[in-house]
Fold this sequence. Notes:
Elements: H1 36-47, E1 50-55, E2 58-63, H2 66-74, E3 80-81, H3 84-92, H4 104-117, H5 120-125, H6 127-147, E4 151-152, H7 153-170, H8 184-199, H9 212-241, H10 252-261, H11 269-300, H12 302-315, H13 324-329, H14 331-343, E5 349-354, E6 358-360, E7 363-365, E8 370-374, E9 397-398, E10 401-402, H15 408-412, H16 426-443, E11 444-450, E12 459-462, E13 464-467, E14 471-476
Parallel strand pairs: 2-8
Antiparallel strand pairs: 1-2, 3-5, 4-14, 5-8, 6-7, 9-10, 11-14, 12-13
Bound molecules: protoporphyrin IX containing FE.
Protoporphyrin IX containing FE binds at residues 73, 99-100, 111, 114, 165, 278-279, 282-283, 286-287, 290, 346-347, 350, 415-418, 421-425, 428-429.
Amino acid sequence: MNAPTSASRLRQFDDLPGPRGVPVFGNLFQIDSTRLHLQLEKWCEEHGPIFKLRLGPRRAVVLGDHELIATALRDRPDGFRRTTKLEQVWTELGLMGGVFGANGETWRRQRRMVMAAFDPGHVKRYHPALQRVGLRLAKRWQQAARDGTTIDLQADLMRFTVDAIAGLAFGAEVNTLESDEDVIQKHLNRIFPAVFKRIFAPIPLWRWFPSVEDRALAHSVVEVNAAVEGFIVQGRRRLQANPALREHPSNLLEALLVAADEPDSGMDDKQVAGNVLTMLLAGEDTTANTLAWMIHLLWQNPQALAQATAEVRRVCADGEPPTVDQIGQLNYVEACAHETMRLKPVAPQNAMQALRDTTLGDVHIPAGMVVIAVMRRDAMSETHIHEAARFDPERWLADGHPGQHASAAKRISMPFGAGPRICPGRYLALVEMKMAMAVLLSRFDIQNVSTVDGKEPRERLQLAMAPVGLRMKVREHGISAQA
Length: 483
Ligand code: HEM
């Protein structure tokens, strides 16, 4: 852990500053879960980088200091676990468990299996399917351009990420981009927000008085579980019909099934199903929301937009969805993604629970204590980042190449988390984001990106943080407004 501090100098929970609460419920009623991250950032300003919260009977220490956050994130799975509350809400909903919620030995086994399935060779084999999804996005926006309609940015980008992840996860061409039908996405969209809301609910009213919303949620869980089980049956059939797939699985589900079939894997089809569901949930909103924020920030920064557009039109001169090679050349676009995630991290907080007594800085953290990391505080601070409020993709580049510049931003901004539980989908997410941006910037000229009232989009947190109400108008590149 941190530099040793003698026990007598350690601060205890009760010694910490923090917002005043009320008896029994503590700070619970001060929390609106849809803007929790903004509230935590504000409290960081008032009480400093370590403060306390009482959430009913639960106690939490909030961390805003990036070094302490990194220390805690790296001390997993032995020092910290994901919270028992998350596990309780997830299980009560009837959702199957996967690597995101797992802990201890189960997590180790599941993480190994998931990482094997994310092997770069496998993701490369999947690239043509991703190009097809890119093409479908292009067609959808071409239609909008021709009809002169406004694009609901969030909704279209979710279709893109659902199709991309479904292709990777199940080898299924789900194709929500070309359909306006009632799709699995509708059910998935209910689950994330509900999990998050229930974690912070002062009283579990749904147990005694289920609302219409609660019943719709229960229905969605049944639908999603049935869909995932159906995908597993199909995957098993494919493996049986073509045993060569065991050597070269063509999607993540097949790779997970093969890994589960290994002797002593300790994994069964239920755990495979839980991980397929986890991929869908963890890979959908996160990537779509980051893309929506990136398009908004580029529109606000015309010089960066011009530079990103020039790069895309040089690398993808034929306007086709980029190959693996071309994706690797979109360095400026990648820097825009990193800069977007610094300013608008879609996971702006990360909650953990201590498994043993430990220390963070000069604070004693007893076993069982919840620790909430506030990810954006230092990434937006002038103390750490020069002109922190400015959208400046250059800070991620050295000589036009990413990955060579040991900038402060890279150390401090941790949009994918850190340590052993860092997001296993991060490279895939970057590839997907570069694919969508290449489609947009090679084929279209953006005419406008705005909210209905023209104000800065509100940040809404529902486990992932999204911009509210962003709309976009585009024109096909090379076709004049009158044509
Ligand atoms: C821009 C897109 C994304 C962002 C910002 C993001 C962010 C994160 C963050 C912050 C975590 C928690 C890490 C930690 O606790 O240290 C996480 C975990 C995870 N993410 Fe992502 N993610 C993205 C895309 C994806 C995609 C595309 C997938 C899969 C298809 C994915 C799968 C996962 C999984 C399975 C975990 C749990 C890992 C574990 O607990 O061991 N994510 N992600």
